[in-house]
Amino acid sequence: MDIYGFYKGELFNAYEYLGAHLESKGTMFRTYAPNASKVSVIGDFSDWEDIPMEQIVDGNFYELFCPEALEGMRYKYRIYNKKGDFIDHCDPYGYSSELRPGTCSVIRSLDYRFHDSRWMNKRTDCMDKPLNIYEVHLGSWKKPESEEGKCEWYNYSEIADNLIDYVLEYGYNYIEFMPLSEHPCDESWGYQITGFFAPTSRYGTPQQLMELIDKCHKKGIGVIMDFVPVHFAVDHYGLTEYDGTKLYEYPTHDIGYNEWGSRNFMHSKGEVRSFLQSAANYWLDIYHFDGLRMDAIRNIIFWNGDENRGENYPAINFIKCMNKGLKTRHPSAILAAEDSSSYPSVTVSVENGGLGFDYKWDMGWMHDTLEYFQTSPLYRTGCYHKLTFSMIYFYNEKFIMPFSHDEVVHGKATILQKMHGDYDNKFPQARALYMYMIAHPGKKLNFMGNEFGQLREWDEKREQDWDILKYPAHDSFREFIKTLNMIYLKYHAFYYDYDSTNFEWSDCNSADRCVYAIRRKSKQGDILTVLNFSDWNQIDYAVTTGADWKIKLLLDSDNCKYGGGTPDGKAEFVHEDDKLIMDIPPYSGRMFILKRK
């Protein structure tokens, strides 16, 4: 390992040296603990008795070769501070962990033969392609039937075919997994991490996760994982005060802890930068993930996420260097920022002065849109431009439009529940909402359960309410989402999100009607979407199209197939001269394809 590069924060492969590495006749252990008085390895192979490690290099690293340490055995580092006290820590660079509540690292090889070269060779960042992401918490998408003594989760291999078939059937082309790094507490959803290089043992082994990703690639599905570069779990056996001092975290409480109660990484330290850069590169390189969605970037940009405290320049410099290094190594991988701030140039390249992300979640669009649909139709004329505001700033960044897990927990209600009114009125509004989402420029993300109108807030301990599909309203809603997604994947007009000539408001001045018309343009044909978000029938609504176009209805959200009131094939409209004229039922949308005559 390049020790100088490690200290400067330039490494992206520190995991190749540090950690537990299986060799032909045993295991080589290495760890970095510069302030320890001594370090030992303990494990299954030593009856949990100390085996002292040797100080190497500059005295800050420790090494031990143990012939008795074999694949699948548990271990920890026993790290003694200057007072002679010790704490047993899991391996910061460990490749695997035991199932919670156990806290040991596990010796694992990373041997796996991928069969996805065709996918990897043609993979792109989807800038000029559709990107429709299905966000999944792997432990609660589906669960095995509960029987005493049986695991409460499917493993990576067991769930793969079922999940892949579902994603393909319902028109998604990427899966985004909430964090799969090892974490002690189910309720943290994986965002409080103790094993940054270890896929959580809840769902199996490293090879089983590789198999899941490999199978996705062979079916043409990309895989993104949530990555947490801001903070780590406070548990004493993890990174917290790893060598008896605050090695990875800030030394002061004021900036050492955050709003989630976890420890903040000190990004100005070279060894911390090398650690995080190596972890990010590890998932892309070793596991063939197609991208990382980086959590809480606001807390990278500003001290503890507070704009009033100013910019955190060392952390900003870190994220720039990491993103630049990752894109150099993996040009086609997707780097997405979950950032709720208005900080500029998040998706501008580092070379051009930006943070170097490919995409940014449009949190403003998400909140404004959902607030609009929570508003009574009586007052929607007054907040009409809440839905047009997003296009004022849209071209400042490259946005993903998310309806994520964060919007269906903690008393916020599910997407369907957020729709104003009673049960029957929620479905047509939700259908129109998703048609608006697809019509709006930006890549798409939808959290599991949203696609069939889940009515219970997400709970990581329970699987999705699949039995609700026995009710026609939910089953037909899912069929609508399926059809809408397939249209999105098929038509080129939806692909060129960040070219301003691809979009126009055909109508954003009908506040009295609560009607909008969006036109997406391409050489293969335009897509015109007309949306009525009022609770009354709009008679003789007209929108200008131009005269040299043939028009065909692609999708009517009020079609009876999807639970609406319009008989299949009976949606009426007239194209006269340069105008499209129709009556639009309440809470409905219509999507048309326009082609040159």
Mean pLDDT: 96
**Tell me, what's the shape?**
elongated
Spatial sequence of strands, sheet with the most strands: 10-11-14-17-18-19-20-21
> Could you list the spans in which at least 5 consecutive residues all have pLDDT below 50?
none
Number of helices: 14
User: How much of the polypeptide forms β-strand, as a percent range?
Assistant: 15-25%
Gyration radius, rounded: 26 Å
> How would you sum up the major sheet?
8 strands, parallel, barrel
**Counted beta strands:** 29
- Give the end-to-end Cα distance, rounded to a whole number of Å: 65 Å
Which structural class matches the secondary elements? alpha/beta
Helical percentage: 10-25%
Give a verbal description of the structure.
This protein is an alpha/beta fold and 597 residues long. The strands form seven sheets. It has an eight-stranded parallel beta barrel, surrounded by four helices. Strand 3 and strand 4 (51-52) form a beta hairpin. The model has no long low-confidence stretch (mean pLDDT 96).
Give a brief outline of the structure.
23% of the residues lie in helices and 24% in strands.
What order do the helices and strands come in, and which of them pair?
Elements: H1 3-8, E1 19-23, E2 26-32, E3 38-43, E4 51-52, E5 54-56, E6 61-66, E7 74-80, E8 86-89, E9 105-106, H2 117-122, E10 132-136, H3 138-141, H4 156-169, E11 174-177, E12 181-182, E13 195-199, H5 206-218, E14 222-227, E15 231-232, H6 253-256, E16 263-264, H7 270-285, E17 291-294, H8 298-301, H9 313-329, E18 334-337, E19 359-361, H10 363-374, H11 390-393, E20 399-403, H12 415-418, H13 423-439, E21 443-447, H14 472-490, E22 503-510, E23 515-520, E24 526-532, E25 538-544, E26 549-556, E27 573-576, E28 579-584, E29 588-596
Parallel strand pairs: 10-11, 10-21, 11-14, 14-17, 17-18, 18-19, 19-20, 20-21
Antiparallel strand pairs: 1-2, 2-6, 3-4, 3-7, 5-6, 7-8, 7-9, 12-13, 15-16, 22-23, 23-24, 24-29, 25-28, 26-29, 27-28
